[in-house]
Design a protein that fits this description.
The complex is a heterodimer. Chain A is of the alpha/beta class. Helix content of chain A is about 35%, strand content about 20%. In chain A, helix 3 runs parallel beside helix 4, helix 3 crosses helix 9 and helix 5 crosses helix 6. Chain B has one domain: Ubiquitin-like (UB roll) (Roll), CATH 3.10.20.30. Chain B is globular, with a radius of gyration of 12 Å. Classes of the chains: A alpha/beta, B alpha+beta.
Chain lengths: ~350, ~80
């Protein structure tokens, strides 16, 4: 155990603490500016099982801050390159690399296999997805986020504490807030913020008292000023997320960071009960869906026609390709009509179905 | 009363300062926001939270003689 001797001689860690670290399972989402220092310190600390989710590849412009990677990694998948480096850094731990994006379809499965989730992502859709999936699987999130010279750190959903939605209940509007690749960032900043995230992970595993839960720590690297804000738990925000459980995996996160638009195939649609099919194409569009009992409400008028839709039915909408019907679903969902779906590939899929099922 | 307002992140780029002192003669957070939006119309499009004495507050919270922070979410990682 000489690898961990400097931990073990610390009274607050010792052999018991080091064993806890060795048994812990941590999932790091995003192996970029924040994810790199998190991964490096967690691996060095002997976190026994580390998962890395990142679909991106290493680019030259990453090397100014993502110091886990070197020139020889350019063009490689980040998750794979990180796994290689971490396995060298500590060959006694297990590192798993996942080269796909986190989605509502895979998030609950991934989260259920880990003790702690680290948010090192670079966009709001994924941040809200992580928040919601962590609530549904009851996992703590160690959150970090950066902008130019400023960073934020917090721990969410820990020991009945507040969530990201308790801090920011209203996601920013589309294109409101750019990411690092669009605005630039001081290379050292994610190193500082990511290292603080790794520190919170260790504190949670070791059972330290003052985990950064219920507080948002803000740091400005230009002024070396720090600021901590208290966050209160909002039960309403938790309930909203929990109410989505039944259809969580069927949906996608939109730019508004909310779940929208359940898409299903025509085969799946026809297996539902008490269905109301709605053609949201304009009235003169061809081909007609003659074989399918439906009503017609063009997308352009659906907001005015909401009263004519029977909300007790399972509402299934289609158009030519599935784009307008997705929009129509999101319009209905905004009106709290949640039992509605869009048919994938629209009328094309419907025609194909009836060619096979004469 | 005199209030110290701190602006974080992209909000400081709109206000062109990270901190300023203003004179405020009304009552609530929503009245303060109205005043700040009149001064900095571009704030309207931004999502942010308001903290007073290091605690998040809502629009109907009364402003006390204190330090106010406008805190935006960051996406970057």
């Amino acid at each position: 155990m000489s690898r961990y001797s400097r931990h073990i001689i610390l009274k607050d860690i010792g052999i018991d603490g080091q064993n806890k670290l060795n048994q812990a399972k941590v999932l790091v989402i995003g192996a970029g500016g924040l994810g790199c220092p998190v991964l490096q310190y967690l691996a060095a600390a002997g976190i026994g099982h580390i998962g890395i989710i990142d679909f991106d590849i290493v680019e030259e412009s990453n090397l100014q801050r993502q110091i886990l990677y070197g020139t020889s990694n350019l063009g490689q998948q980040k998750a794979i390159a990180a796994k290689q480096r971490l396995s060298d850094l500590n060959n006694t731990i297990t590192v798993e690399a996942f080269t796909e994006a986190l989605t509502p379809q895979n998030a609950l499965h991934y989260f259920s296999n880990y003790d702690i989730i680290v948010d090192g992502t670079d966009n709001f859709e994924t941040r809200y997805l992580i928040n919601d999936a962590a609530i549904l699987t009851n996992k703590p999130i160690v959150y970090g986020a950066i902008y130019k010279f400023e960073g934020q750190v917090s721990v969410f959903n820990y020991n009945n504490g507040p969530s990201y939605r308790c801090l920011f209940p209203n996601p920013p509007s589309e294109n409101d807030i750019p990411n690092c690749s669009e605005v630039g960032v001081l290379g050292i900043l994610p190193g500082i913020i990511g290292t603080m995230q790794a520190n919170e992970v260790i504190k949670i595993i070791l059972g330290f008292k003052n985990v950064l839960s219920g507080k948002l720590y803000c740091y400005n690297s230009k002024t070396t000023q720090t600021f901590t804000i208290d966050i209160k738990k909002s039960t309403t925000e938790f309930e909203k997320v929990k109410s989505k459980r039944d259809y969580f995996e069927e949906q996608y996160y939109s730019k508004t960071c909310n779940l929208t638009v359940k898409e299903i195939t025509i085969d799946e649609a026809l297996q539902k009960e008490n269905i109301l099919f709605i053609d949201v194409r304009e009235l003169n569009e061809l081909p007609k869906a003659n074989r399918l009992h439906h009503i017609k409400i063009p997308l352009s008028t659906i907001k005015q026609e909401l009263h004519s839709i029977d909300k007790t039915k399972t509402i299934i909408m289609f158009c030519k390709s599935g784009m307008r019907s997705k929009k129509a679903v999101s319009i209905l969902q905004e009106q709290d009509i949640t039992n509605c779906y869009s048919i994938k590939n629209g009328i094309t899929a419907i025609e194909n179905y009836f060619k096979i099922h004469v | 009363m005199k209030l110290t307002i701190k602006y974080f992140g992209m909000l400081a780029e709109i206000t062109e300062c990270t901190e300023e002192t203003i004179t405020f003669s009304e009552d609530t957070v929503s009245e303060l926001l109205k005043m700040l939006l009149a001064k900095y119309p571009a704030l309207e499009k931004k999502e942010f939270q308001v903290a007073q004495n290091q605690t998040l507050v809502s629009e109907d919270t009364q402003i006390l003689n204190s330090e106010i922070v406008l805190l935006p979410p960051f996406a970057g990682g």
